[in-house]
Design the sequence.
């Protein structure tokens, strides 16, 4: 979602955007002139795809050969399943926050009181528009922590897919970061703006570091 879009009313057809859409429907909607699903929703889907890769590797790392890590694998699969559910929620939350911002823009501004109410509503909408992708970044970090945790011990035959999962988590996080950055420009509270900026910087560093470590292990195991 982009809070810098022109202050015009957009036709939204949010009823057709859900986790149950076909890939074709979602891509057609995302590539259309309609504002939803936007970048935040797409990032949530990317994170879920990353989760699916980690889950698949975990599911193929079971049996007698992997008996020593079964408890760890089971924990990773449970965690990833929970994170996938959160990605689904955030896809819809991004659409909702965009619509709330558009509603705030449409508020009357004829009097000083109306202008103040409208400005406050826009600020609250901007905060919600930051909080949603921020939550997604936190999900990506949790997902890549799980991905990295089984990089050394999971099924070598599908280790490339685990690396792909790490890449997708990092891509989703970077996409969410751009959404946060553009919406930070709408915040008037400089202290709050700095708090968000500091938080996303730490998240970005953690995620990038874990992705890099996961890929080093992935490539080493591919070559052995």
Sequence:
């Amino acid at each position: 979602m982009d809070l810098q879009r022109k202050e015009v009313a957009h036709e939204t057809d949010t009823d057709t955007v859900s986790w149950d859409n076909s890939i074709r429907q979602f891509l057609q909607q995302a590539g259309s002139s309609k504002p939803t699903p936007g970048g935040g929703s797409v990032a949530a889907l990317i994170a879920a795809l990353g989760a699916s890769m980690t889950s698949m590797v975990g599911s193929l790392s079971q049996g007698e050969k992997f008996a020593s890590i079964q408890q760890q694998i089971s924990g990773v699969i449970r965690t990833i399943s929970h994170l996938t559910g959160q990605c689904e929620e955030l896809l819809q939350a991004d659409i909702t926050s965009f619509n709330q911002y558009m509603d705030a823009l449409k508020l009357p501004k004829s009097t000083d009181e109306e202008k103040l109410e409208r400005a406050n509503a826009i600020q609250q909408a901007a905060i919600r528009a930051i909080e949603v992708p921020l939550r997604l970044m936190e999900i990506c970090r949790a997902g890549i922590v799980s991905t990295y945790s089984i990089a050394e011990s999971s099924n070598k035959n599908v280790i490339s897919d685990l690396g792909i999962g790490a890449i997708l988590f990092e891509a989703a996080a970077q996409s969410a970061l751009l959404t946060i950055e553009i919406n930070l420009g709408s915040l008037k509270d400089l202290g709050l703006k700095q708090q968000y900026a500091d938080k996303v910087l730490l998240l970005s560093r953690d995620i990038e570091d874990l992705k890099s470590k996961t890929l080093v292990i992935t490539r080493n195991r591919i070559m052995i």
Summary: Residues 2-15 have pLDDT under 50 and may be disordered. Helices lie at 23-30, 39-59, 70-105, 112-149, 159-184, 190-223. The CA atoms of residues 19 and 88 lie 6 Å apart. The radius of gyration is 20 Å.
